[in-house]
Specification:
The protein has seven helices and twelve strands. Strand 4 and strand 5 (179-180) form a beta hairpin. Helices cover 50% and strands 20% of the residues. The protein is elongated. It has helices at 2-38, 40-46, 50-96, 106-119, 136-144, 183-209, 282-301; strands at 102-104, 122-128, 153-161, 171-173, 179-180, 214-222, 228-233, 237-242, 245-249, 262-267, 273-277, 303-304. The strands form two sheets. An eight-stranded mixed beta sheet has the order 1-11-8-7-2-3-6-12, with helices on both faces. The chain has a four-stranded antiparallel beta sheet with strand order 5-4-10-9, covered by helices on one side. By secondary structure, it is an alpha+beta fold. It starts with a helix and ends in a 17-residue tail after the last strand.
Length: 321
């Protein structure tokens, strides 16, 4: 540290001395040239001294070069300082942005859907949910009320649990307090998901007929419990939450209900969602990119909607009714 400080002081001192010496030499050249114009012996003495002139020109060139280097160094330092300040401001704005990570209602989510459809010609919705109940019906209404725009493209991807397979949440709590698979309820959920998919797909022909654009709809499934709610609008916004309410009620979906059985269901239609927007700062952008990667990874590994059959049904019942 001491050596570095000494070198810095020496470099700083030499820079000041060099500047002063250069100015003195240039001043001396100016004075001698001025005297030579009016004092003939001095003019005669300098006449024909080509080497002196060349040396003086070299000195002038050196001084000009040094000044250019100093200006370049100052400009580079100013640029680095500007970048540092910009990074600091961005970090502060990302940590203090009042809208970053705000808690919003499902109604606010629907309004963002409306804005995206109204303002964009190519809109992508990516969803992870329970059955699509809080997403499909509002989206269907929004699509039906769109103004004419034959260039509009709307791409919808919905990932839901695979209720064609045995699962415990949602499930059936027996009299002993332990959870098991609720086959009848799963049958109902499969029908519900298929219905939402069919309703949205019917909008494809209606939108083309009314000149509202092109619609792409795809549902996929993965064997998982429906705990997460995730909604992505293009690459700009994310809404996320959980199904944070458990409801215990009689099982009205099975014919072989035993006394004391209770259906364990998840409720999240009124759950608050955390909203992230790309303009909310660096942290928001990082979260959006991570959620997009998370969704795309699951989506690529998921399967199409299953055929109308269920596993775990002791009566071999079909999902279709």
């Amino acid at each position: 540290m001491a050596g570095t400080s000494l070198r810095s002081r020496v470099a700083s001192g030499w820079a000041r001395a060099e500047s002063t010496l250069s100015r003195l030499l240039l001043l001396a050249v100016f004075v001698v040239g001025l005297i030579a114009q009016f004092v003939k012996p001095v003019g005669d003495a300098l006449e024909g001294k080509a080497y002196i002139g060349g040396a003086l020109l070299s000195l002038v060139g050196y001084v000009l070069y040094s000044e250019v280097q100093r200006l370049n160094t100052a400009h580079e330092a100013q640029r680095e300082m500007t970048e540092t300040l910009r990074d600091m401001i961005e970090r502060l704005s990302s940590s203090q942005q009042p809208g970053a990570g705000a808690q919003v209602t499902p109604e606010a989510l629907v309004e963002k859907f409306r804005e995206a459809l109204r303002d964009g010609e190519e809109v992508d919705f990516a969803v992870i949910g329970f059955t699509g109940e809080t997403f499909a019906p509002p989206l269907k209404q929004l699509l039906g009320s769109l103004p004419r725009n034959s260039d509009r493209k709307v791409n919808v991807r919905v990932l839901v649990p695979d209720f064609a397979q045995e699962i415990q949440v949602p499930g059936l709590i027996r009299a002993d307090g332990k959870v098991t698979d609720a086959v009848g309820f799963r049958r109902y959920l499969v029908q519900q998901i298929s219905g939402y998919e069919a309703e949205l797909k019917r909008m494809k022909g209606r939108m083309q007929h009314h000149g509202q654009g092109r619609l792409s709809i795809e549902f996929r499934v993965m064997h998982m419990s429906p705990s997460l709610k995730l909604y992505l609008i293009n690459s700009d916004q994310v809404f996320e939450g959980i199904y944070d309410k458990i409801e215990l009620r009689p099982d009205e979906y099975s014919s072989d209900v035993r006394e004391g059985d209770q259906l364990l269901d998840l409720i999240g239609h009124d759950s608050l969602l955390t909203h992230w927007h790309r303009d909310d700062g660096r942290r928001a952008r990082e979260i959006i990119d991570r959620r997009r990667t998370f969704f795309d990874t699951l989506w690529n590994a998921a399967h199409g909607l299953p055929a109308n059959s269920l596993t775990g049904d002791p009566n071999g019942s079909s999902a279709a009714s």
